[in-house]
## 1
Amino acid sequence: MSPRIVLVGVPGSGKTTVGELLAQRLGVQFRDTDRDIEALQGRSISDIFIDSGEPAFRELEKQAVARALVEHDGVLSLGGGAILDVDTRTLLMAQPTVWLQVSASKGAHRVGLDVPRPVLLGNVRGRLSALLTERGPLYDEVASTTINTDSVEPAAVVDLIVDWLAGQQHE
């Protein structure tokens, strides 16, 4: 078993919104590895970062992604930093992975300025810009296709992914 589709991207790219709509459209389940981690740990991602540190969180994330890739056959959304791990990137290269790309300004607008996301503390737009610079090549490395979500409504992004999936089935 493996996911029908995996969504990657920085915070504010639309992974959860698009993922839930896409799962509904495809008639499959939606799963988010950040939610998996929170449920397993019984605390928020922010609390894990504060109490245990980012390296401990990244290890939990690596395990959650590996588990979800073999357990889940629907739409899977990964936390924005999941692609930092080389083993995770290797696993993703064998999956139909969509990079939901977003600019720092649009992503900051979507997540807002008062968000409990540890990687965005401080200057949200500046942090997103730095994340895009750091992670962009890694998203590109694992992506089967890339969709820029800046000026596209979530339902239209879903249409683009469904069209891409249909094209993949005919190859």
## 2
Amino acid sequence: MYDLIVIGGGPAGMAAALEAEKNGVASILILERAEFLGGILRQCIHTGFGMHYFREELTGPEYADRFVVPVEQNPRIEVKLGAMALELRPGGETHTVIAVSKSDGLLELRAKAVVLAMGCRERPRGALNIAGTRPAGIISAGAAQKYVNMDGFLPGNEVVILGSGDIGLIMARRMTFEGAHVKMVCELMPYSSGLTRNIVQCLDDFGIPLKLSCTVVAVHGKERLEGVTIAGVDERLKPIPGTEEEVPCDLLLLSVGLIPENELTRGAGVPIDPATGGAIVNQNRETALPGIFSCGNVLHVHDLVDYVTLESQLAGAGAAEYIRRKNAGETVRAPEYVPTKAGEGVRYVVPQQAEKNEAAGVKLYFRVGGVHKNAVVRLYANGKELARKKRPRLAPGEMEHIEIAPRQLAELPEGAELTVEILE
């Protein structure tokens, strides 16, 4: 029996566990299906991590070690590596996690609270409906990153990248460093889905063209990829006849989006937000099921790991407060929540609800649906403006936030909705 079980030993899970321990939780278990802590950061050997949280530039492994070392040295935190969580069964007093591990076999574990921090996975080729054969040489950008950075294997020499997500942009530079020829990055949308700094540092600095409103419509080759056909797309994202162009290549990297790993979450009956693919949560990142929290990329896909850390600390502190109340036998009054809503120009808002008596105010994180220049972010409820800020540029690849003060929350009338919108 544990006070807290954290599922996932990546940056989100480790930050949540450390914050929970800092707030008084005495017995914590981290379940990690890989053979090491740190998650995807272990293969991200490029710099750019930690500039917001640590105020210094780190590689992925360096950032991970800032959390791995204190986790491994903390006597209150137990870690099971090579342990795969199979099922989460919510309960009243305790929650049950069914897991399997190479060393311990089938496990039935119980805890007063659970933090879900399983991360996300890449969208596969099967989701794209690209015509053609099934040759070798079509892999995700993350798989290529593992091959190159961890296995020392270069999977191709003449490269086309489909999708301008951050992993694809970073791998365009990485493949170039290793001697491959990256011919182009094709992006279906009329804007990039990656960070502006990655477009500049990974494409522009190396003369790699970014083709917007462009996609791969066919692949060629039997045993090995020999080339692809690209085409421009219209405003409905349909290929435009007559714009087809054949591009010889032996490697197609897919960087076409990330999917939160929420099979456990759905199986437990936690309500999911269709806009994020993650759980619906409050400002403490607690789901609709009391004692079950969610954070990091399993909640919504982040652009920076620094924000994953900050969010996961909210979940860890929230879980600690929940456990404290449980241990004290407190009868907790059902909180009064104000729902949040994505307005004009906004794709989603997290958290999806904010507690009215929250003492510290609430940061509302959101992503926009398109590129906006010289725009205003506006937060309002029932027609009354609560906050606004000017932004010279907003893009879908970069997460934004706006804050509501505790007094403003407390004064909202019954039935109010917090709406975030973009004005140009």
